[in-house]
């Protein structure tokens, strides 16, 4: 899958990523990258990036990254577990998430997502998601 194919697939339905302003920015054989604004959509009451928004970015990137390692007409990935350590607060600008596969197996995948501040490069959050690979009924692509 190319980045443009993924963007087209993602744009066919409204998602949490849309509400948070998440955009996919890069795809290579090694990683998937995305960008999210730090603004009123993603703030907690004290004006900092909400930890849940960071986790939503991480899960979005890890899930889509996992999909790129499959044939979506035969298999899908669903989240089993996610964790996150929030390292540094951010008040404005954008954060960049980079999802990298740590393990791509037959029945599970494990992805690490590093979220950094776009301007300073400071590590904001590090997350890990475990995905279950499931077989789809014959002839039914992931919806």
UniProtKB/TrEMBL annotation:
<dbReference type="GO" id="GO:0061522">
    <property type="term" value="F:1,4-dihydroxy-2-naphthoyl-CoA thioesterase activity"/>
</dbReference>
<dbReference type="InterPro" id="IPR006683">
    <property type="entry name" value="Thioestr_dom"/>
</dbReference>
<keyword id="KW-0378">Hydrolase</keyword>
<comment type="similarity">
    <text>Belongs to the thioesterase PaaI family.</text>
</comment>
<dbReference type="Pfam" id="PF03061">
    <property type="entry name" value="4HBT"/>
</dbReference>
<dbReference type="InterPro" id="IPR029069">
    <property type="entry name" value="HotDog_dom_sf"/>
</dbReference>
<dbReference type="InterPro" id="IPR003736">
    <property type="entry name" value="PAAI_dom"/>
</dbReference>
<feature type="domain" description="Thioesterase">
    <location>
        <begin position="46"/>
        <end position="121"/>
    </location>
</feature>
<protein>
    <submittedName>
        <fullName>PaaI family thioesterase</fullName>
    </submittedName>
</protein>
<dbReference type="GO" id="GO:0005829">
    <property type="term" value="C:cytosol"/>
</dbReference>
């Amino acid at each position: 899958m190319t980045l443009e194919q993924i963007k087209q697939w993602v744009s066919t339905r409204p998602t949490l990523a849309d509400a948070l302003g998440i955009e996919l920015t890069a795809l290579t054989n090694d990683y998937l990258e995305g960008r999210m604004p730090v603004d009123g959509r993603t703030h907690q009451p004290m004006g900092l990036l909400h930890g849940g928004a960071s986790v939503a970015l991480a899960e979005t990137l890890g899930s889509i990254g996992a999909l790129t390692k499959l044939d979506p007409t035969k298999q899908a990935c669903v989240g089993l577990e996610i964790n996150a350590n929030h390292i540094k607060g951010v008040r404005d600008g954008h954060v960049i998430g980079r999802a990298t596969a740590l393990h791509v197996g037959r029945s599970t995948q494990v992805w690490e997502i590093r979220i950094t501040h776009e301007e300073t490069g400071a590590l904001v959050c590090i997350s890990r998601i475990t995905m279950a690979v499931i077989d789809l009924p014959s002839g039914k692509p992931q919806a």
